[in-house]
């Protein structure tokens, strides 16, 4: 093992002058109103702390061989219904979620020593929801969605750049760029939500809430 990597670690002390944690300990009672209020609070804290792309989350799926696949996507909606992101439905993740409609996402906010993992079944959102978000995107992002056959091989960067130029010619600045028909939103409906808070000596706080038979249970997990 690379010795430098083996020596890398963060103490997660976050202690003030009096030796106490600046961030109060995560406890089960903070989920008395469900997972959503605390998740929103933690996301807001990450934004205020200046965490880069605080809505970035690692999305886990499985391929046709049952092998795990992960990549980073951006959360574009958070509500009682679940966690929302958008993609090309013919991309690797889109096809994998069509075949196995269950996903896991993890938000990792290292500067504030917190992370949240959400797992649950997925579904495609309505065309109306997709259309509303699509038209909030910058023009360049919409052109990029048309230019890219996401996850498909391409010969060179020059070919990719040419595809973007072709999309720009197809949709001039005075023309509305419509939603690509194979592009849209995917909603993860939470079945399990785990909150993790870093602590010294690897004695981290982990609180998990799970949905079973229509009700939520809350439990503390050992680190």
TrEMBL record:
Entry-linked Gene3D superfamilies: Electron Transport, Fmn-binding Protein, Chain A (2.30.110.10)
Binding site for FMN: 71-76, 86-87, 93, 115, 150-151, 196, 206
Cofactor binding comment, as recorded: Binds 1 FMN per subunit.
Biological processes, Gene Ontology terms: pyridoxine biosynthetic process
InterPro entries in the cross-refs: Pyridox_Oxase (IPR000659), Pyridox_Oxase_CS (IPR019740), Pyridox_Oxase_N (IPR011576), Pyridoxamine_oxidase_dimer_C (IPR019576), Split_barrel_FMN-bd (IPR012349)
Binding site for substrate: 76, 133, 137, 141, 202-204
One of the record's GO molecular function terms: FMN binding
EC number annotated for this UniProt entry: 1.4.3.5
Catalyzed reaction equations: pyridoxamine 5'-phosphate + O2 + H2O = pyridoxal 5'-phosphate + H2O2 + NH4(+); pyridoxine 5'-phosphate + O2 = pyridoxal 5'-phosphate + H2O2
Family indicated by similarity: Belongs to the pyridoxamine 5'-phosphate oxidase family.
Function: Catalyzes the oxidation of either pyridoxine 5'-phosphate (PNP) or pyridoxamine 5'-phosphate (PMP) into pyridoxal 5'-phosphate (PLP).
Protein name: Pyridoxine/pyridoxamine 5'-phosphate oxidase
Species for this entry: Rhodococcus opacus M213
């Amino acid at each position: 093992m690379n010795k430098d990597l083996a020596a890398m670690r963060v103490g997660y002390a976050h202690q003030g002058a009096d030796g106490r944690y600046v961030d109060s300990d995560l406890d089960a009672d903070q989920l008395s109103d469900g997972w959503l209020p605390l998740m929103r609070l933690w996301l807001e804290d990450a934004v205020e702390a200046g965490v880069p792309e605080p809505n970035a989350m690692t999305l886990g799926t499985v391929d046709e061989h049952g092998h795990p696949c992960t990549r980073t996507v951006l959360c574009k909606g958070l509500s009682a219904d679940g966690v929302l992101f958008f993609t090309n439905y013919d991309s690797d993740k889109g096809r994998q979620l069509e075949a196995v409609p269950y996903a896991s996402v993890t938000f990792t906010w290292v500067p504030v020593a917190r992370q949240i993992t959400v797992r649950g079944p997925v579904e495609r959102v309505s065309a109306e929801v997709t259309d509303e978000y699509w038209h909030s995107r910058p023009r360049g992002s919409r052109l990029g969605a048309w230019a890219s056959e996401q996850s498909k091989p391409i010969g060179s960067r020059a070919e990719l750049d040419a595809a973007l130029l072709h999309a720009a010619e197809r949709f001039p600045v005075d023309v509305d760029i419509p939603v690509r028909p194979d592009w849209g939103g995917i909603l993860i409906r939470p079945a399990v939500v785990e909150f993790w808070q870093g602590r010294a000596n690897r004695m981290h706080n982990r609180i998990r809430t799970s949905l079973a038979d229509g009700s939520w249970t809350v439990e503390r997990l050992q680190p």
